[in-house]
Request: fold
Amino acid sequence: MAQSKKEDSAPPTVQYFAAVLRLLRERAGFTQDELGALMNYTGSAVSAVETCAKPPTDEFIDVAEKALDAGGLLRSAIKYLRLERYPVYFQGFVQLEQEALSIASYCTQVIHGLLQTEGYIRALLACNYPPFEDAEFEQLVQGRLDRKAIFDRKPRALIHVILEEAALRRQIGGPEVMSQLMGER
Reply:
């Protein structure tokens, strides 16, 4: 019964991916443990994705794609699964951002999301009240990191960001996080 609740409460794209993964695994004749071993994951990690207890990471999808010889079927879901990592109110923005040819932003309080390091993201999200649940926190961190895929696509977007000096001087996460952000070693 608990499994069913997890599956029912998961976003539709995650549910669909889980069903396709399960179908491909069963067609290939693998148990969850066998597929996990082939992918260098545990069987319980495969189970967690198939039961929607945990959404798949990009890395998991890539490895499953190869292990099941899925012909691009699993990999094609990444774009849609990434959107599920964002709050509903932000999904439309991310979709536009990923398709944009040009982005211009003026930031007064914090560093623009596309320029944030993982440490900065974690420090910033840790300030939320009420605090995020661990799973939601990690999903938001991963979502923000996923936005950086815009730098790897072709054609690359032209990005203009103007930061007020206060955003650069504001110590979010402490000196070590800020030095990583500024590219200092």
Q: What stands out?
A: The first strand starts at residue 102 and ends at 107.
